[in-house]
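Lab notebook, design round three. We kept the backbone fixed and only want residue identities now. Task for the bench partner: fill in a sequence for the structure below.
Input C-alpha cells:
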C-alpha cells in the first residue's frame, strides 16, 4: 500500500475530476414561456439579529428569461436578443453542448490506482435559431 496515497485519501485530497465538453448538438424545440423581470435598483438594508451591524443586499439587474422545451431538453435562458426576437410557441433549432464531469478516486484497500466513482452531466445552452 502506498502510504502517501492512503493519507491523502483519508484527508480528502486524492479525488480527481476530469471534465469533458461535447461537440455541438442540435435539437428542435418550442419557445415555452417568456418572463421579463424588471431591474430593482434599490439596495435593501436589514439588521442582523443579535449583531451590531447591517446587511446590505444589492439591487438586481433586468432579466429577459425565455424557456426552450424540446424532446429531452429544457433550457431557461436570460437573453435580451432572443427574448425580443422570439414569441411563445415559436419553433426553434437549439444548439447546445453536454458538460460531463468524471470523478475518480482510490477505492480502499486498493491505493495503487484510481477508479471511476461516478459522473455528472449537464447541458450548456449555445444558441437558438427560429425555424420557418
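Proposed sequence:
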Amino acid at each position: 500500500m502506498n502510504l502517501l496515497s492512503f493519507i491523502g485519501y483519508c484527508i480528502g485530497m486524492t479525488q480527481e475530476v476530469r471534465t469533458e465538453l461535447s461537440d455541438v448538438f442540435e435539437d428542435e424545440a418550442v419557445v415555452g414561456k417568456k418572463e421579463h423581470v424588471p431591474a430593482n435598483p434599490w439596495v435593501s438594508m436589514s439588521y442582523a439579529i443579535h449583531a451590531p451591524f447591517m446587511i446590505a443586499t444589492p439591487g438586481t439587474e433586468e432579466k429577459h428569461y425565455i424557456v426552450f422545451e424540446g424532446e429531452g431538453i429544457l433550457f431557461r435562458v436570460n437573453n435580451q436578443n432572443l427574448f425580443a426576437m422570439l414569441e411563445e410557441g415559436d419553433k426553434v433549432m437549439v444548439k447546445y453542448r453536454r458538460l460531463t464531469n468524471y470523478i475518480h478516486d482510490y477505492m480502499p484497500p486498493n491505493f495503487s490506482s484510481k477508479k471511476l466513482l461516478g459522473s455528472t452531466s449537464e447541458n450548456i445552452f449555445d444558441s437558438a435559431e427560429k425555424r420557418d
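Keep this in mind before ordering anything: The beta strands are 16-21, 25-37, 44-47, 54-57, 63-70, 73-78, 91-107, 110-130.
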